[in-house]
Write a structure and sequence with these properties.
The protein is α+β, with helices and mostly antiparallel strands and 594 residues long. The chain is 48% helix and 14% strand. The chain contains 26 helices and 16 strands.
Length: 594
């Protein structure tokens, strides 16, 4: 049994676990009406899905860092001995779902001495440098080992050394025992599920966890993306923001050219999360209001005639059950979009989706463009996280506004407007080029997240004209979004979701979307949307061209932390002392014990 040395002092641990510095997002409690009102069969289903989600968390910990599980065992042993330092360290470990993370101030947090975070996390050998990685792949390709290289560069493999070469082992084979246990729980969940569509999806998902076949995942994803009227939500999230190794291939022209020659796409590795919840019908109905406008938004995307996108004329349907399209889509036509969306009360978020690292996910639009299901006619699905977006301290919010926003514009700040913006952001992921843009390397996710933000803002005026928003709501979305774009500290380049906000802040400031007057933000409301359209067009052009150098220049030119950003950041730090966050899952913990 390995011993570790704690990296954070007792003083630092006591500070970071104090309620003033540790934010808590509370998932559904045992007496939540949403749970109590479920049918008996669905309550049983929920229990098994929670168990499956926590098994997945164990798998993702190993993908995240080679030492996570042994450190977790070390902490548990020390806690049993009454070690207070271990007890406090475990609070942070459980919150960030691993030994290494980043806090809300963009500081790296390493819980054990001598264990640092590597670009390849736990999916590549710890001692593998970028240069050696590129050299081994080049040598293997030149020796004709094309299929072996494909397995190394798929999004669903763990890479290990094999003599002087590398091998890629499919996740399902690497963690076979745990995936089998997950599949067993999901099969049990399917037995008591009261909804036929959800039951079918669960059976497909369980099957996909038993055999290392990407097509089985595709069938499960395709079915999952159609789910709209189900009582429960269960998702295995697969996103690749954490892998910083695979994207480096785009920086090596010789290797990139070789991969292109043999039709090999270097796709960053997926990190796995589990989401379990209860679909909120009222919240979902509100989300659906935007659905009928999506074809118009797709038509109005920059350079729309130059690429295929997920929402396209191919989605037109003539069935009576289909959604009536706005008249500009053609008289008499009706639209059936491959895009579903649900608002969910969360029971548990585990693994990658539940890791509180600088922040936590408000919503997700999946499957991502690199997933096989989108090539076999599958659609996409937006899931919104109710418990994550709720603001618990309105007094703190008002303090923040008093410190940073022009008092005359307080009337336009509305926390619900942030949710409206997020809806636009998630739907914008389905707009624009359908290709996954792997050639943009480490800048791919930054560019895509920037596109989603600008897609949301760029269409606010159009959606107001179409009747989706009132003029008052339009102003609320614009002012709230610009205000919320200011951060407490400069992020690192690995934080795609935060880098893009700095880029936008610089871009907007230079073009007059906002000003800092008397040390407070004043939003020039009517300038914001036209400027967002400009930035959106520039981003889409980069995605279409797929040029790494252009993407790098665009990001670095705009990722500049200005004096005004620092001015607002200093104010935010005084009001909001939060350094870390965690989720509290009372109902899930009860169900785990049953």
């Amino acid at each position: 049994m390995r011993e570790f040395e704690f990296n954070l002092s007792m003083e630092e641990l006591e500070k970071r676990t104090n309620k003033d510095y540790l934010m808590t997002k509370k998932m559904l409690k045992c007496d939540a009406p949403e749970y109590l009102e479920l049918e008996k069969g669905d309550k049983e289903t929920l229990k098994h899905l929670v168990k499956a989600a926590y098994i997945l968390e164990k798998i993702n910990m190993q993908i995240d860092c080679h030492h996570n599980l042994e450190f977790k065992e070390f902490l548990e042993r020390e806690v049993e001995k009454g070690n207070k330092q271990a007890e406090l360290t475990k609070i942070l470990f459980d919150a960030q779902k691993g030994m290494n993370a980043i806090d809300t101030m963009s500081n790296k947090i390493n819980l054990a001495k001598g264990i640092k975070e590597y670009p390849g996390k736990g999916v590549y050998p710890e001692d593998l440098s970028k240069e050696e990685f590129h050299a081994i792949l080049t040598k293997m390709i030149n020796e004709g080992k094309i299929e072996e290289v494909k397995k190394i560069l798929t999004q669903r493999s763990v890479v290990e050394r094999n003599g002087d070469e590398l091998i890629g082992i499919d996740y399902i084979d690497k963690f076979k025992e745990d995936f089998e246990k997950m599949a067993d729980e999901i099969d049990k969940a399917a037995e008591t599920s009261t909804n036929a569509d959800f039951t079918e999806y669960l059976k497909l998902q369980a099957k996909a966890l038993r055999t290392a076949d990407p097509m089985l995942d595709a069938y499960a994803d395709k079915k999952w993306a159609t789910l709209q009227d189900t009582p429960l939500e269960f998702t295995i999230t697969r996103e690749n923001y954490e892998d910083e190794m695979t994207g480096t291939i785009a920086e090596n022209k010789e290797l990139s050219d070789l991969l292109e020659k043999y039709g090999i796409k270097p796709i960053p590795k997926d990190f796995l999360g589990g989401r379990v919840g209860i679909v909120n019908k009222k919240g979902t109905e509100a989300l659906m209001a935007i659905k009928k406008y999506l074809p118009i938004l797709a038509k109005n995307m920059p350079f729309a005639d130059e690429y295929e996108q997920n929402i396209s004329p191919a989605d037109v349907d003539t069935s009576s059950a289909a959604l009536q399209a706005p008249s500009s889509q053609g008289e008499g036509q009706q639209v059936k979009l491959k895009q579903t969306m649900v608002d969910v009360d969360l029971v548990a978020v585990t693994g990658d989706v539940g890791a509180y690292r600088g922040g936590i996910t408000l919503a997700e639009n999946l499957p991502n463009d690199d997933k096989l299901s989108l090539t076999i006619g599958g659609g996409r699905r937006n899931v919104y996280h109710r418990q994550i977006r709720f603001i618990s301290d309105m007094k703190k919010l008002q303090e923040r506004l008093d410190a940073i926003l022009d008092k005359d514009q307080h009337k336009y700040y509305l926390d619900e407007a942030d949710h409206w913006f997020t809806i636009g952001h998630e739907n914008a992921h389905s707009l624009g080029p359908k290709k996954a843009c792997e050639t943009l390397g480490k800048y791919r996710n930054i560019i895509e997240e920037n596109k989603a933000d600008m897609g949301s803002l760029a269409f606010v005026d159009l959606l107001t004209e179409l009747g989706m928003y009132t003029e008052e709501q339009r102003k609320q979305i614009i002012v709230t979004t610009i205000t919320d774009n200011f951060l407490k500290s400069k992020p690192t380049l690995s934080q795609a979701h935060r880098v893009r906000t700095v880029m936008q802040n610089k871009y907007f400031a230079e073009r007059g979307a906002y000003e800092i007057i008397d040390k407070k933000i004043h939003v020039n409301i009517d300038k914001v949307v036209p400027i967002a359209k400009e930035m959106l067009a520039e981003i889409i052009r980069i995605q279409i061209d797929g040029n790494f150098d252009k993407a790098e220049k665009y990001v670095l030119d705009n990722f500049v932390w200005t004096d005004n950003m620092e001015l607002i950041a200093q104010k935010l730090q005084k009001i909001n002392k939060t350094l870390n966050g965690r989720t509290e899952s009372e109902l899930a913990e009860k169900l785990l014990k049953e």
